[in-house]
Amino acid sequence: MVMPCHHQRDALASIMRTTVDIEPGILKALKREARKHNVPFRHLLNRLLRQGLAAPPEKPAEPYRLPTFSMGAPLFNVDKALSVAASMEDEETVRKLLLRK
Predict the structure, then answer these.
(1) CA separation for the pair 5, 11 (Å, rounded)
(2) What pTM, to 2 d.p., does this model score?
(3) Based on the number of CB atoms within 10 Å of its own CB, is 15 exposed (0-12), middle (13-18) or buried (19 or more)?
(4) At what angle do helices 24-37 and 41-54 cross, to 10 degrees?
(5) pLDDT digits over 42-67, tens only?
C-alpha cells in the first residue's frame, strides 16, 4: 500500500466537500463566468467566496424616519377614545339600518 506524502495529505485534508443550494440564475451566471475565464467552476466559486468574505461589511442603512405633524388640541377626551369609537360605530350601524327601511 502506497501512502501519500505529508504535503499531499495536508492538501487533501484542506478540501471539504459540501452541498450548497444555489439559485438557478446565480448558478447559470457562475457557470458562464467560469467558461468565460476558462477556469474550473469550483475555483471561481472559491475565489468569489473568498472575495466576499474579505470585503468590508456594508454600511447599515440609515433608520427610516417619518415626519411628525401637530394635530392640534383633541376635540374630545382621548382618555375615552375606545368608548368614543364604539359610540361612533354604533351610530353608523343605526344609520345604515335606517337606510334599509
Answers:
(1) 10
(2) 0.45
(3) exposed
(4) 110
(5) 999 999 999 999 988 888 889 999 99
Give residue-wise pLDDT tens across range 2-45: 445 555 555 555 778 889 999 999 999 999 999 999 999 999 99
> How many residues comprise the chain?
101
Q: Cell for 91?
A: 351610530
* Degrees to nearest 5, angle at CA 56 with 53 and 60: 115
The set of cell numbers assigned to 61 is 442603512
Q: For the chain, give every domain's residue range.
A: 21-55
Which among 53, 51, 50, 33 is positioned nearest to 41, based on CA atoms?
33
